[in-house]
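Bug #77: duplicate submission created two jobs. Keeping one. Sequence:
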Amino acid sequence: MQTEPQDSTQSSEKDSLSDQALALEKFKKNSRVQYVRIVVSDDCCPACRELEGAYEKDGAPQLPEEACSHPLGCRCFYLPFLTEIYP
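Kept job's structure:
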């Protein structure tokens, strides 16, 4: 029985989507996280550049950005803005 090789790009995009979705959910559940910041690459596309900034936890857009036109795809990520650092 032969199996078709899996496209590594599709697998990578799925993993990235899953990682970003998990990160956002984790930040939403953490009471110390006040805002979620979206960080973009220096050479990002215009669609990703528009996402750059801080958002209320429940108002943060989903990543990766579907309208991304960069040849490497969306490389944006979430970064938490904490209200307190130590307990």
